[in-house]
Amino acid sequence: MRASLIQIAVDEGESVESRRRRAAALVREQAGADLVVLPELWTTGAFAFDAFQAAAETLDGPTYEAMAKAASDAGVWLHAGSIPECAPEGTVYNTSLVISPAGDLVASYRKIHRFGFDRGEAVLMGAGREPVTVPLPDTTLGLATCYDLRFPELFRSLVDAGAEILVVPAGWPERRRAHWTLLARARAVEDQAFVLACGTAGAHAGVPQAGHSIVVDPWGEVLAEAGHDEEVLTVEFDPAEVAATRERFPALKDRVLGLESPRH
């Protein structure tokens, strides 16, 4: 599998529509990849709290339309990062979109763990309730978003649902970049899965972004890591390594907590 993580820069001086056009062009340039990933809330910026309500859109809104066309043109599976979704009842969610090579919306995931400690996203957006996995032709994706990375129980549920590749779009701040790398590797090791963690460059509402998108294999080895600025990180790997790793070192079979007690 060939995956491309688009670490797009978010600049407050650039309009959302301009950034959509740029992102679509970058997706089209990845023709030949199997999977392309964009970051969290790249249309507005993850820390641009004041913009969430005004920029909120429906799942079939302008970001989906632009990304669906780009995915179809490139012939790729596209994790289009996340958008501020305006749900029918008026609640705004931090929602990820997964689009097929035909341009169809095949899955959406509302971020479960909202960041902010009673401020920002934590009070401005609703919380998702359901883990989401997405079957691809040769593997299964498990979806998480940014702050979710700190909650291993979500990733366990994704693995239990068959996930072999854990995709984590983010708007992670530079000041906690060490945690970003550490947690991505930890989730890969404990779940014996690939982790594709795609962040942003630039700054959101004055908050410098960490960049350093990263791809980690099931043994916790870093296969590729981006720098600080905007770039496309492309890596090739074999999803079959997940099953092979779990067979060679079957730690997941020894889980106790979270499993039903054996019957006597």
Describe the structure.
By secondary structure, this protein is an alpha/beta fold. Helix content is 25%, strand content 27%. A 6-stranded mixed sheet has the order 6-5-4-3-1-15. Strand 13 and strand 14 form a beta hairpin. The longest helix is centred in the last third of the chain and has 15 residues. It is globular, with a radius of gyration of 17 Å. GO terms for molecular function: hydrolase activity. This is Carbon-nitrogen family hydrolase. Keywords: Hydrolase. Belongs to the carbon-nitrogen hydrolase superfamily. NIT1/NIT2 family.
Task: Name a few traits of the molecule.
15 strands, six-stranded mixed beta sheet, 7 helices, alpha/beta, Nitrilase/N-carbamoyl-D-aminoacid amidohydrolase, 264 residues, Carbon-nitrogen family hydrolase, hydrolase, C-N_Hydrolase_sf
Based on the structure, what is the oligomeric state of the protein chains? Answer: single chain
The order of strands across the largest sheet is 6-5-4-3-1-15
pLDDT < 50 runs, ≥5 residues: none
The overall pLDDT, averaged over residues, is 96
Residue share in helix: 25-40%
CATH superfamily: Carbon-nitrogen hydrolase
Give the end-to-end Cα distance, rounded to a whole number of Å.
Answer: 45 Å
Please give the domain count.
1
Pfam families: CN_hydrolase
Domain CN hydrolase: 1-239
Keywords: Hydrolase
Protein name: Carbon-nitrogen family hydrolase
List the helices and strands and how they pair.
Blueprint: E1 2-7, E2 9-10, H1 16-28, E3 35-37, H2 52-55, H3 62-74, E4 77-86, E5 92-99, E6 105-110, H4 121-124, E7 133-135, E8 140-143, H5 152-160, E9 165-169, H6 177-191, E10 194-198, E11 201-204, E12 207-208, E13 214-216, E14 222-225, E15 231-236, H7 240-248
Parallel strand pairs: 1-3, 2-11, 3-4, 8-9, 9-10
Antiparallel strand pairs: 1-15, 4-5, 5-6, 7-8, 10-13, 11-12, 13-14
